[in-house]
Amino acid sequence: MAKRKRGPDGPLSDSPPDLHILVAGREEPLLAHRRVLSLFSGVVDGLPSNTDGSPTPWDLRGLVLEGESEPVAAAVVECWLDAAYSRVDASRKLPAPATLAEARPLLLFADAVDTTQAVLQALGRALAERPDLALTVAVGELKVDVQLKGRMHYIAEEALEYGLEPSGSRPGSWCTLVAKEAFQPHAEAFPSAVARELESWLHLAGRLNLVPLARLLTSFIKVHIMPNVRSILLPSICSVFSPRVLQFMPRELLLEAYVRDTLVERPAQTSLSASELTLTAASPISSTWFGKPLNSTLKAKVESMADGCSKVIINDSTDIPLHATLGGPARGVCARVVEEVVAKALEDD
Question: Which pTM value belongs to this model?
Fold first, then answer.
């Protein structure tokens, strides 16, 4: 997190800061306005005032965040100040770290000082809307930032690769993120490391009710179980849905999941088999997988599998399971039903 000079600027420049924030590793206090921070932090609002009119001290030098061993850093507090002041001062920008690892101490600090939902939700939205937001996955000495949007990561020939979603008429492209030499020693443990990070973040997003961030993580899961045997997640998928994740999952997402499951998961599965058919890459993810522009067509054959599913084969090499279900509402109809009934349920809360 970049360090910035903090002081009495913007529309509050005529009001001297009356809150001195003491943080570990810094001789001079961070300066702030108590009347501003009291609006957005229950802890600040409860600080005792000095009877002599001198600035109120807020001592954070002993505050150790969850999972950390050292007191909270000044850079984290500065980012939180940006988030709070951005509600009243347009010159202060809402922070949106590039990785979830960087965002964790900020969110944990916000939680620790009883930050209002308005600020927490703004932080969650800023993170979820960042196009290059990444999940940091560490296995041994290997540390990889896996982007949460616009990519499908998978394991191919013991290397970590990803496909970029197509743009306009241009097909997606495949790139190597970690070469075989560096990835091979960690390939077996990588799915469990990805699952561990997702479980931790789904729990935190649910606990803080950061719905947009929880949606983004859920979307990442859906994309990354698609590659099947090449998936960076599927071998460890059960560990993602831990009891604490389900306990703290935002109610809105649980309601949506129930309604969608009822509409989509029907006991009408069927198996397909054809020596040749025309397949349309009708979604960004299918386009990415086949390396074709969105809505392009390609020739394929379909074979039945022993488990009752089918397998799509392209060019006698690339294959992916195909699950077919008869009847029921179309995806668009399903989405409208989910939106309508969940909105009504939330209104009645």
Answer: 0.90
Burial of 46 per CB tally in 10 Å (0-12, 13-18, 19+): exposed
Give dist(CA 184, CA 178) in Å, integer.
9
Last residue of a domain, one of 83, 110, 129: 129
- In which element (H, E) is residue 347 found? helix 331-347
Q: Write down the residue that tokens 């050292």 correspond to.
A: 70
- Position 34, amino acid: R
When divided into structural domains, the chain yields a total of: 3
Q: Does the structure show a pLDDT above 80 at 349?
A: no
Q: Give the pair of three-digit tokens for residue 320.
A: 């992916």
- What residue ranges in the chain does DSSP mark as E strands? 19-22, 30-32, 56-59, 134-139, 142-147, 151-156, 159-164, 174-178, 269-270, 274-280, 297-304, 310-314, 318-322, 324-325
- Cα 8 → chain centroid: 34
Residue 333 covered by a domain: no
- Asked if 262 contacts 215 with a C-beta cutoff of 8 angstroms, the reply is no
Which range marks the domain in which residue 50 is found? Answer: 10-129
- Spell out the residues 6+ positions from residue 40 whose beta carbon is closer than 8 angstroms to its own: 84, 87, 115, 116, 118, 119
Residues 284-310 have pLDDT tens digits of 888 888 888 888 888 888 888 877 788
Residues 148, 69, single domain; the answer is no
257 in a structural domain: no
| Number of other residues whose CB lies within 10 A of the CB of residue 10 | 11
Phi, psi at residue 71, to the nearest 5°? Answer: -60, 155
DSSP label of 132: T
Give CA separation, 124 vs 66, 209, 305, in Å: 19, 9, 43
Beta strands (DSSP E) in 99-240 are 134-139, 142-147, 151-156, 159-164, 174-178
